[in-house]
Design a protein that fits this description.
31% helix, Rossmann fold, eight-stranded antiparallel beta sheet, alpha/beta, GMP Synthetase, Chain A, domain 3, 24% strand
Length: 551
């Protein structure tokens, strides 16, 4: 079966709207002319990516060549990604968000043959020996006189290109397009193998789910999500920020970008929304150009939604799509439904509502198991309101991990017509077919009496005005698992009376059957979080930290 290469969206958009900007790098100069100084129109992005595709082909990077791309978000990043897709090379996307210690093992598993990166990326590759056994083609993006002596520069690649036209028509649905690594928040990141069909399904689902139209303007604070913008006909604004620290962005720069470029869409992690929302709310700032906001990476607290909504027009919603690197999106819910209905249930221990499954996906809840489930059986599925594992089946769900057979076997359940992916998350489905997220399967706390689920318990304590966030962990004391609540306070409450606060939190615990077994509270100055989103709590690290705190 022949299907469109994911890059085929770009020439179509270039023909339909050649002079519309595809990618713009934020410029602090407020004049309109200066603001668009560093930019590609759709025609320019299409032609530049064609030129690079030809040059890379001449250089020896061709269909199926696994190619690492370590380039900061910007014009070169977008042109290179689309060039690789047009070539049908396999993009190995390693963003710094997975952490420096994980990059080497991930590269070893991906077995890339080519490496395209900045001077910093190449220096790190050489110092740490990344990919020494497999990489034989290297391209330098940028200018470093020393490295340029023995690494071919992108400028040279372009110079050797034939022309700026590039056509390929034989891409098949199941041809490999990319290897995208998970965030590694609960272990070493795994490389999810994407086909062109997976990407195409994601683009179509996002377009329909959020009614995204060509000509819209997107503020791209997460590089991988930003790749969808050109395929959807949107202008992608690359903000001036450190993409590995979204929770530490300069709020003014983000808000200036929205206002200067009149962005209609913003995608940001909960940590980014929290920081920008606090700053904007305090200054009574309004962002009337935004007609939708998307946030993913971790559950978004109602207070963060309420605060950020104060910056928006009354009819604008913040959507929180649920999914993972292996399958995105799985479900979605809007802030109106959360704030008007489901937040109250979250505060009483019901978990976080993540909405109804997207239309093209088959989502089931099965019995919790830590073992391989080789074949689907109807007896696995649970009834409404029964807590179990989330499983998803559909065109945007990836089939395998690269060189991780055991991880693949643990995550996939084969059926007669495909497979279900086990998300690694715990949830239940209510009578309205909505999913209620209860936490990661690996982070549930199993005591001698019951199983406690992190998100359900934490929602009870997160309502306290002094609390920023909480994390439930299990501590082994003499062979018995004891539930412990770790607490990070709001900045203005850091110096409060911890004894009184502990009593108040334990009183909340005692009054709810979900949390009544929690009798220990620890205060942590700042929770460890994942690098990619700055939102997923590192409960495993907190468990190690708590090892000698309770005896």
């Amino acid at each position: 079966m022949i299907t469109a290469n994911i890059a085929s969206h770009l020439p179509m958009m270039a023909a339909a709207q050649p002079d519309t900007y595809a990618v713009v790098k934020q410029n602090s100069n407020k004049s309109k002319k200066a603001a668009y100084k560093t930019a590609y129109t759709y025609k320019q992005l299409d032609e530049t990516s064609n030129l690079i595709a030809h040059g890379l082909q001449e250089f020896g990077i061709r269909k199926g060549t696994r190619t690492v791309l370590m380039v900061a978000p910007g014009l070169d990043f977008f042109a290179l990604v689309f060039a690789l897709f047009k070539l049908e090379a396999v993009l190995v996307a390693l963003d710094p968000g997975i952490g420096i210690k994980n990059l080497g093992p991930c590269l070893a598993e991906a077995e890339p043959a080519a490496f395209v990166g900045t001077s910093t990326a190449h220096i790190a590759r050489l110092v740490f020996g990344w990919g020494n056994n497999t990489i034989h083609k290297t391209v330098l993006v940028g200018n470093n006189p020393l490295l340029a002596c023995f690494i071919t520069r992108l400028k040279q690649i372009k110079a050797k290109a034939k022309d700026n036209n590039f056509k390929r028509t034989d891409t098949k649905a199941e041809d490999l397009a990319a290897i995208l690594f998970t965030s590694g928040s609960t272990g070493i990141p795994k490389g999810a193998v994407y086909t062109h069909a997976n990407f195409t399904a994601q683009v179509e689902t996002l377009k329909k789910l959020y009614d995204i139209q060509p000509g819209e303007i997107d503020l791209a604070t997460f590089p991988l999500f930003a790749l969808f913008a050109p395929a959807l006909g949107m202008t992608s604004i690359i903000p001036d920020m450190d993409f590995t620290r979204p929770g530490h962005v300069d709020p003014k720069k983000i808000i200036d970008a929205v206002i200067t470029y009149q962005c209609s869409t913003l995608f940001g992690s909960p940590a980014l929304l929290n920081r920008v929302g606090k700053w904007g709310d305090a200054k009574n700032i309004k962002l009337p150009s935004l007609n939708r906001v998307l946030s993913a990476g971790a559950p978004v607290a109602p207070i963060i939604l309420r605060r950020f909504k104060s910056l928006l027009n009354n009819d604008v919603e913040i959507f929180t799509p649920y999914g993972a690197t292996e399958s995105l999106p799985v479900s979605s819910i809007g802030s109106n439904e959360i704030l008007q209905e489901t937040a109250l249930a979250t505060a009483t221990g019901s978990g976080v509502c993540i909405g109804k499954p997207v239309p093209n996906l088959d989502v089931r809840i099965i019995k919790i198991s830590d073992e391989i489930i080789a074949r689907w059986d109807a007896g696995l599925e649970l009834a409404t309101h029964e807590i179990g594992e989330i499983c998803a089946k559909g065109p945007q769900v990836t089939r395998t991990y690269v060189n991780r057979k055991k991880a693949t076997d643990l995550a996939k359940i084969m059926t007669d017509d495909g497979f279900y992916h086990r998300m690694g998350d715990i949830a239940y489905i209510d009578e309205q077919d909505r999913l209620w997220f209860c936490g990661r399967k690996s982070q549930r706390v199993i005591t001698k009496d019951k199983t406690l689920f992190t998100i359900c318990c934490e929602g009870i304590f997160n309502t306290h005005p002094a609390v920023f966030r909480t994390a439930l962990i299990g501590k082994d004391i003499n062979g018995e698992i004891i539930p412990v609540l770790c607490v990070e306070l709001e900045p203005e409450h850091k110096k409060c009376n911890k004894k009184i606060l502990t009593e108040e939190l334990l009183a909340l615990a005692k009054n709810n059957v979900v949390s009544e077994d929690i009798k220990h509270v620890l205060f942590h100055p700042a929770f460890p979080v994942d690098i990619r989103h700055n939102a997923k709590i590192g409960r495993e690290k907190l468990t190690l930290w708590a090892a000698d705190k309770i005896t």
